[in-house]
Amino acid sequence: MPDVPAHxxxxxxxxxxxxxxxxxxxxxxxxxxxxxxxxxxxxxxxxKVAEIRCKETQPVNEGDVLVVLK
Amino acid sequence: MFEKIxxxxxxxxxxxxxxxxxGLGVKTVAVYSDAxxxxxHVQACDEAVRLGPAPPRExxxxxxxxxxxxxxxxxxAIHPGYGFLSEQAEFAQACADAxxxxxxxxxxxxxxxxxxxxxxAVMRAAGVPVVPGSEGHVGEEVAAKASAASVGYPLLVKAAxxxxxxxxxxxxxxxxxxxxxxxxxxxxRASFGKDSVYLERYFEQPRHVEVQILGDGHLxxxxxxxxxxxxxxxxxxxxxxxxxxxxxPAPRPRLLHRLLDAGLLAAxxxxxxxxxxxxxxxxxxxxxxxxxxxxxxVEHPITEATTGLDLVQLQLRIAAGEKLPVGQDxxxxxxxxxxxRINAEDPVKFFPSPGPVKRFDTPVPADxxxxxxxxxxxxxxxxxxxxxxxxxxxAKVIAFAGTRAxxxxxxxxxxxxxxxxxxxxxxxxxxxxxxxxxxxxxELDTHFLERL
Lengths: 70, 452
Known about the structure:
Chain A is mainly beta. Chain A contains no helices and eight strands.
């Protein structure tokens, strides 16, 4: 069950996947925005989205878990 | 001249405008968000008005709040800096309607170039060479596919209302085009409120050159050229004046003149006044107009260094109704200037690096004046916090010397003595670029950093 954390401090700009969706390693799960830059957060491995722990426009800190895969 | 102006910006550019105003005996009003209550730009001004919460939409991008602040403080003019409200014709018009002078071009000129697809059409009609691309917006997928086929792949999908690299994507084939169309339209709608996109041919290794324009409504000058080929994520990080593109390996004065003439023509075509920049791509011996930025550029100090002009003071003087004190023949650029943008970002991955600035030791005083050929325009100092709400620019280091080789040496020495702790910076990237043989030989293009 890998937890996928935010790799930077910023705002959640877009959530690209839904709970239950199958994802492949490298798929973009969430796009963060920080300092006028978009930063995609990718799936570290193949799996299924078990939980989404963030909302669009929500501010997040580096290390906060955004998505849980199973 | 104005008695008091409001500076509708933050960071280094707000500090820069405040210095220029002080030099003219003009009082300054800062505006700030809750994230910036004790920021350097607030202290650089004579008074300050709070706008609202940290997100730009609720503070620096809220034109009504900015105008209310100007009226409350009794300012006669608003300097927008760059970014935020600086290129919004509606804001310039709202200033005029409120009896305030907008320090920038006339709203009509801003409207003519606001939509970048429309600006291309206007420029092409006037005889300015533009990058081959779609005729206006490409809406539907069918039309986009047809347009893409005639322009040819690879191409760049761009948001018509975009800027600063936001809403821009490369497409190398049709599936990529369809993906890019959707992504750019989404991004453009969220960032700019408009989803129209257009296509341009994508050049693999272009150089980026630009012309500084200054006009007082009667006289329009091409003040000088700059090269900004060194970029990451479509954002400039090292700029030079004059452009090495026209100096190395051998001087190409005719091409430089073609560039300056094209810049002037572009500015005159839309009745441009005040300060602006015409941006071009240089591919081999061809120049192609990409856009006219209706504002002061981040990299304006290198043109100030090589011309001796204070562009921000001239902006204020033009806005106050004065005539340009110089003519085209007075402009004989001298020496060489380089600017490095010091960003709070990871030097390897280019990730943003917000956080507390624990140490910020600049090699010379960060007062915007030259000290032994080094000038530093900073928006932060030790003890400040870099927040994720705004861009990552911490400071600009400008090196000026008689020759390019001397300017490079000055810059390297200055950057080696610039110590920042608490946030990561791209200083190591700059030092690596400046030490490279390719940089010394002036072999620059927009993918320079990827090869470093």
